[in-house]
Amino acid sequence: MSPDPKRQPPTRQDLARYDRQMRYPPISEEGQRRLVASQVLICGCGALGSVLANTLARAGVGKLRLVDRDFLELNNLQRQVLYDEKDVERTIPKAVAAREKLQQINSDIEVEAHVADVSAENIGSLAEGVDLILDGTDNFETRFLINDLCVQQQLPWIYGGCIGAEGQSISIVPGETACLRCVLPEPPPPGSTPTCDTAGILGPIINVIASIQACEALKILSGNPDAVSRHWTVIDLWDNHLRQVSLESLPAGKDCPACGRGELSWLDGSRGSRTAVLCGRNAVQLSFPARGPVSLEALEKKLEGVGRISRNDFLLRLTTADYLVTVFPDGRAIIGGTDDVSEARTVYAKFIGN
Fold first, then answer.
1. Does domain 275-351 have CATH number 3.30.920?
2. What pTM value is reported for the model?
3. CATH entry 3.40.50.720 includes domain 14-246
4. Could you read off the pLDDT of 76-94 as tens digits, one per residue?
């Protein structure tokens, strides 16, 4: 990892807030200085992402780059620990709210907020200069995209996922461990796995899995790679089950389409959609990478009389009898009130335009 030349190395007084962490021998002062010099990309600022960001900010990771496509809703507060009711009332994006909270938690670190959907077009720039990527997403398309980039760039990343009371995590160090596609060559077919709509989600499993991910990140960033788990860890808190499957029998590159044959089809854009049914939301996200930016001010004038409109610097929201339409400056939209992609596209065309 390469420290920011503009930042002065921390003094011992600067490090005093991490005293208890540095007393743990594998971290020590040397490891803490490595953490302070580290940069991490957190993809997703929802359930897992909010716990990850909170933990790494308190641990003193020097720069956190947060990216999330969504805004806050009341039902997020059950499991998304950085936010409160005032954030929901302000109708602000999760990444922006997270940045505000983290800067209050630790003013010594740098926090960037990006309100965007992670895509093949932007993941390279989002990951520029980082030492590690943390998965706080809720879909396999983005995870396969992260995996492709990390295989290409030889970047470590930590996968995490939760549903119901069960969660799982895998630490991936390209060239040393199996990558995600070594374990799972193809994403699960649509409808074949439960979602938070069908199975629900408990807050405690989020905290457990994100804490495992965060600890794995601290191992890597503090210079303790030998301590990184070589297992696929699955925990069910309700049934009190812990399972660990060794991945050492899956050597990196052996018969893997990504790290073995170099087929980075998610990164080159040949695979992956531009729509997403949002978990637990009865909503569809529509993205249009080839389009230019949208003037929210002009759109507000255009939609006068159509329904109730609210706008801030980050988004415009249109409420009609049947739909809640949220539009972002890059043209991306979330159509609430349906989980049918075709219907969502029709709503977008009706109110926003083709």
1. no
2. 0.86
3. yes
4. 999 999 999 999 999 899 9
